[in-house]
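Dear V.,

Thank you for sending over the compound details. I've combined the ligand you provided, thiamine diphosphate, with the protein sequence from our construct and run the structure prediction for the complex. I'm sharing the raw inputs here so there's no ambiguity about protonation or stereochemistry in the SMILES, which I know was a concern on your side last time.
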Amino acid sequence: MSIVPAPVEAQTPVPDDPALIERLYRNLRLTRLVEDEVARVYPTDVIKSPVHLSIGQEFVSVGVCDALEPSDHVSITYRGHAAYLAKGGDLNAMIAEMYGKKTGCAQGRGGSMHLVDMAAGVIGASAVVGTSIPVATGFALAAKRKATGTANSGVVACFIGDGATEEGCFAESLNFAALHRLPILFVCENNGYAIHEPLAKRWATDRLCERVATYGIPATRIEDGDVFTVRDAAAAAVRAMRAGHGPAFLEVMCYRWREHVGPSEDFNQGYRPASDMAPWAARDEVARLAALLPPDRVAALEAEIAATVAAAFAFAETSPFPLSEDLYDHVYA
Ligand SMILES: Cc1ncc(C[n+]2csc(CCOP(=O)(O)OP(=O)(O)O)c2C)c(N)n1
Ligand SMILES: [Mg+2]
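Below is the predicted structure of the protein with thiamine diphosphate bound, written out as structure tokens.
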């Protein structure tokens, strides 16, 4: 099965909300610029961890996180740069973490796959596929127990890949979340691959939303690659969760433009043709939203975002490495 987004001419109407468009564009562009810079510097070995880039998939995180409040939580994966940033995670601490520096968000011990920013509501990520799902479910249980019943009671957005839905804890967590009507939005970024293995070799059927619906969880599949569609679906789910309606599930079809891990393209690897990317590149949400804004505004934002990104890499570059005598700090046994 190759995944194809809605053709450009079939896009849903753009909302008449310049502030929303600018907000989404800013986050899309920030993530793209950060990851382009990560890819550029990666061969110089300043980055000390593997990197799983979300280039091309950013619209999922940006759309979902726009529907959240600062006090809400997100649970992210090792492909989590976009959601970390869209939820308001600290950029300097993220880049310093990738550089293995003491000023990193995990004090340089975790790298790109273990981003965390509890002040921004970003629950610590794990490199082990699926393990974040029960942790996020636990955060949702806590949010429900603390809930005041007001419109501002907390919710959790749990980002996962299509591969993570094959883990047993996915089924366990869906059941638990549905049974206890927990305020958790599961967001499956379905990019069609787990490393190099396509869905057709892994799933007996691609009816993921039907599977999820049997737990009593409303499940929606978004195929059009549209950040506004994602944003609207997430906002509706969050409203329902805050009103006490329990979990929801979004399956968002997307496409990973770069290799599974690392900074490069991988169409020479033989597991997917470059032609699969063409329809996604044609409706790149970063470029599409830029074209919806006044050119002088785009230019001003570009200067501002580029300066922010450059400052973050400079911060990482000039930050100290952790001291060797601190190696055993934070080690339990
Ligand atoms: C429990 C576990 N099994 C296997 C791996 C190796 N592994 C790393 S990423 C990955 C693919 C996961 O695919 P998906 O969930 O679709 O996320 P994507 O990389 O496409 O974003 C696998 C199998 C792992 N890290 N953890
Ligand atoms: Mg995948």
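A first observation: The pocket of thiamine diphosphate (ligand 1) is lined by residues 79, 127-129, 161-164, 191, 193-195, 260 (CB under 6 Å).

Warm regards,
I. M.
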